Amino acid sequence: MVAEITHRQIPLNGIEMHVAECGAGPLVLMCHGWPELWYSWRHQLKALAESGFRAVAPDMRGFGRTSAPDDVAAYSIFHNVGDMVALVSALGETRALIVGHDWGAPVAWHAALLRPDMFPAVCAMSVPHRKRGRAAPLETLKQAGKGDYYWIYFQDRAAEDEFARDARYTLLRLFHIGFGDTPREDRMSLYVDRAKGLLGSPRDVPLPPWLSEADLDVFANEYRRTGFRGGLNWYRNIDRNWELTAPWQDAKIMQPALFIAGSNDAVITGSMGQRALDELATVVPNLRKLILEGAGHWIQQERPDEVNAALVSFARQHLK
Question: Which of 19, 124, 107 is nearest to 63 (CA)?
Fold first, then answer.
């Protein structure tokens, strides 16, 4: 029998959260990144359910059908981890394997760091856990002469205006440039020419083979309705997150951990990402890494069979 994905709204932690659920058994909680939705986990929801797990993927705070508070400060790492803690309780559970991709990865890492009693194991995709630096990240970038890095561009209203002009094109362009097989000359720079924006000049963009027109419509229809501000507010808390996590300076995540990424993902092949990947085992000692050759950033959509197999195996081993 094919597992069915169901949907509902759950009031928690001062917001209304939309969740997609599938299956019954030990809980696996999956946190998406930017610019995504619960739908990014469509392949994993069914694979986990059919393997005996209760798989749950919310629209994260500020995304899709989940509330998007007006206050930028309401998108800190503490708010997002708090949402996941509240969601586990709202689902009637006391523990879960937490999984995160892209921005969802820092949520998963910090959930494991802050609540090891609730999250006995963690799986993160594409974004390594970083050592907390000695200075605020955005200020560090500016002092290093990297004021055109995309994190800094995302602090401004210009970014959300650029992306909202044509939500479907924005999403297609972002999915295309993060795909492992995208030619180098078509990839987007992480440094922004303010006159052209992040997306650059309009161009014909092919649909990645792992994404159908119907899949793209799911993302585009939601972002046309909501705009991009909620997700960009996560970036607007980067320095605030650094300030809030000061008590955990040099703390380690001791739970069993799985890190999955594509060898062609710019997040781990850039200078900052490569350094974080190299240092990952020093802050997450009980770590297993799986680097999928030729894959890009949107790993769980691009290579679902390999991701599903690794995730199910890890869940069976560490979630009983």
Answer: 19
Percent of the chain with pLDDT over 70: 96
Domain that holds residue 59: 6-318
Indicate if the pLDDT at residue 181 is higher than 70: no
In this prediction, residue 42 carries a pLDDT of: 98
Q: Considering only CA atoms, which of 309, 315, 305, 298 is closest in space to residue 33?
A: 298
Q: How far is residue 103's CA from residue 99's CA, in Å, rounded to a whole number?
A: 11
The region of weakest confidence among 5-9, 25-29, 32-36, 261-265 is: 261-265
Q: Does position 266 have pLDDT exceeding 90, yes or no?
A: no
Written as six digits, the tokens of 309 are: 């197999």
What is the number of structural domains in the chain? 1
User: Which positions are catalytic?
Assistant: 102, 235, 297
What is the chain's alpha carbon radius of gyration, rounded to the nearest angstrom? 18
Q: Which of 216, 257, 275, 293 is nearest to 40 (CA)?
A: 216
- Residue among 72, 76, 94 at smallest CA distance from 85: 94
User: Within a domain: residue 115?
Assistant: yes
**Sequence letter at residue 304:** P
Is residue 1 in a domain? no
Long-range contacts of 222-227 (CB under 8 A, 24+ apart): 222/37, 222/63, 222/64, 222/65, 223/35, 223/163, 223/164, 223/167, 223/170, 223/171, 224/167, 224/168, 226/63, 226/64, 226/68, 227/160, 227/164
pLDDT at 160 over 80: yes
| Tokens encoding 17 | 């959260």
How much is the pLDDT for 162? Answer: 97
We report the CATH number of the domain holding residue 153 as: 3.40.50.1820
The answer to whether 115 touches 86, Cβ cutoff 8 Å, is no
Of 118, 124, 123, 125, nearest in space to 96 by CA: 118
